[in-house]
Amino acid sequence: MKTITYCIALVMWVLTMVSTHAQENSIEALESAKEQVINDEKDALKKEVETINKRFDNNEITIVEAERLKEEAAEKRALNIENKLAIIDNKIALLKRNGEEESDVDKLEIKFFSNKEIIGFDYTPKKRKYDRRTTSDFVFAFGLNNVITEGESLGDSDFKVAGSRFAEIGWAWKTRVFKETNWLRVKYGFSFQFNGLKPTDNRYFVDTGSQTELQTFDLDLDKSKFRVDNLVVPVHFEFGPSTKIEKEDYFRYSTHNKIKVGLGGYAGIRLGTRQKLKFDENGESVKQKLKGNYNVNDFVYGLSGYIGWRDAALYIKYDLNTLFKDNPVEQRNVSLGLRFDMD
Fold first, then answer.
1. Distance (Å, whole) CA 195 – CA 164
2. In the predicted model, what is the mean pLDDT of residues 110-132?
3. What is the pLDDT of residue 277?
4. What is the structure's pLDDT at 135?
5. CA 53 to chain centre
6. Which residues, including other chains, have CB under 8 Å from residue 104's CB and lie 6 or more apart?
7. Taking each helix axis from N to C terminus, what angle separates 2-57 and 63-98, rounded to the nearest 10 degrees?
8. Residue 334 and residue 318: Cα distance in Å, rounded?
9. Pick from 165, 200, 208: which is nearest to 295 by CA?
10. 187-197 pLDDT per residue, tens
11. Quick one: which of 302, 307, 287, 271 has its CA closest to 194?
């Protein structure tokens, strides 16, 4: 009986020593991996800097752009080192805490430095598309809004210049037209337009049935605002230079620091029309929100264009359709402001 007990104790001791030795070897391998992480990232940064220097020597980028790209590369590699070392440290802590239990559960070979595996799970990075001809942007625009009335100039407008505004929000896709050059692009998408008008001389819009006209309000108006909301599909042909960026496994055209000109138009439908009035009556403040079609055209279409640099552009749009269907005097909406295309 004593012999059996002794044998069992001896076996347990051997298993403990083997487990401890395996654990120590795993931790040593992980500690060595930390040095390898730093060396690999340094080598990768060195190659990126060499590529940037070549682009500068070939006059593809300015010295300012070169320095910016180097700073971005250095920051990326530093973050890579920080994140990878954190993974290794967590793995070491896990082994120290759980010992052989962790080894039994894991059983995955530790390969930090292949592109396909990170400790604990397989990871295959998505392959970058070699030529991406279509990109997308979030579009936001705002500015001044008014109408051009038949036989009148904007200086004689019935609406406040500073108080009448528009806003536009949407999404746009941009596709390179030609395969080997990027001087011409087609930009298309959808946008919500909000065109506001503030009448002058204490007036507001009244739908008389046959037409919509401005009438003087009986009380003093603190606010009179008329707004038409549209959903449109804009299409622009965009012109302008670009820089070709070539890498080993992909290339891109960049228009970031280039002048861009877009010419085109839009078409869509009216979503709604509303009018807000604010005034004092019998010592109390009254707010009215009136909804209706006000004889506004249900179908909207027009011309638009922009000229810009980077993400911002001067933007103009002009409705070819009349604002009201049956009014004897034709009025067409016009807007001027800033447009931002943010990818």
1. 8
2. 55
3. 95
4. 92
5. 30
6. none
7. 180
8. 4
9. 208
10. 999 999 999 99
11. 271
Each domain of the chain, given as residue ranges in start order, spans 2-122, 134-342
More confident residue, 338 or 1: 338
Rounded to 5 degrees, what angle do the CA atoms 66, 70, 71 make?
A: 120
Q: How far is CA 143 from CA 88, 271, 313, 323, in A?
A: 53, 20, 12, 19
Average pLDDT score over residue span 214-237:
96
- Six-digit token pair at 205? 């819009």
Q: Report yes or no: 289 and 303 within 8 Å, Cβ to Cβ.
A: no
Q: What pTM, to 2 d.p., does this model score?
A: 0.63
Six token digits for residue 208: 């008389």
User: Does the structure show a pLDDT above 90 at 50?
Assistant: no
User: pLDDT tens digit string along 258-302?
Assistant: 999 999 999 999 999 999 999 998 889 999 999 989 999 999 999
| Number of CB atoms found within 10 A of residue 65's CB | 16
